[in-house]
Amino acid sequence: MADLITQNNWDIVPALRALLKSEHFFDVLNMGCHIKNPIDHVVGTCRQFNIAFPNSSNLPDQYDGWKIIWGFLYTLTMEPGEPPNVAGWSAYYQEPQFHELWINSDTLPSRNQMTDVLAATNGHTQYGVNLKIDLIAFAQQFSNPGDPNVLIADSAALLSPNDIGATQTAFLKTILLSNQSADYYWTNAWDQYINNPTNTSYKATVETRLRSMYTYLMDMAEYQLI
Q: How far apart are CA 199 and CA 210, in angstroms?
């Protein structure tokens, strides 16, 4: 890598190209082994769940939406453009913990609280702006959301860089099935809503189960990894 940089007159692009095409970059041992920094966690959540922000037709609201994100990042000790000192954030240089410093008794509950509130019924409202995860729309992107096994597998594959394992998968399924044993308890609820999307009762049933499942999934340790 160093040779590539010097050979190309300090242009970093060839070195990055070699890195991103290397076997090391795709090695399973290098996946899900690093704790997300707060920006990766907060902005990544907004992007993964396609959270709607005010658009540029209303700049004050758009900036207020970004202020909400800044507030989350402030709580998680990583305000963009505001490093604590000239050395930057200690998680990037303080050995031997490095990235582990992003997680402590204050920041982990705050991470979970952020994802919990974004997935809540009313989302998070501040400065007159509401940010909220559309759980139904998120589930609809997958290949067969009416099948609880497929929905859980697809969701975990997207939201966790590592296999969450049989035990966690089974527990997520009990949440989605509301502690029932048969898959059709979810399939029927989903199909009823899809066939009658204006029925508030059907919608509430589906949203409640999805909310419980995704809240739990985002609170898992695996969701903190990248």
A: 17
Cα–Cα distance measured from residue 29 to residue 49, given in angstroms and rounded to the nearest whole number: 26
Cβ-Cβ contacts under 8 Å for 161 (sequence gap 6 or more): 31, 32, 222, 225, 226
Say if residues 175 and 213 touch (Cβ distance below 8 Å).
yes
Work out the angle at residue 201's Cα, subtended by the Cα atoms of residues 157 and 141, and round it to the nearest 5 degrees. 25
Report the C-alpha gap between 217 and 12 in whole angstroms: 37
Give how far the C-alpha of residue 20 lies from the chain's centroid of Cα atoms, to the nearest Å.
Answer: 23
**Whole-number pLDDT of residue 25:** 86
Helix (H, G, I), strand (E, B) or coil at 96: coil
For the chain, what are the domain ranges? 1-30, 38-133, 141-224
pLDDT in tens, 3-21: 999 999 999 999 999 999 9
Rg from Cα positions in the chain: 20
pLDDT in tens, 188-225: 999 999 999 999 999 999 999 999 999 999 999 999 99
Q: Are 136 and 214 in contact (CB under 8 A)?
A: no
Separation in Å, CA 36 to CA 8, 20, 50, 136: 31, 19, 19, 26
- Residue 117's closest CA among 103, 131, 96? 131
Helix H or strand E segment including 219:
helix 200-219
* Helix, strand and coil percent figures for the chain, each rounded to 5: 60, 5, 35
Compute the distance between CA of residue 69 and CA of residue 63 in angstroms, rounded to an integer.
Answer: 10
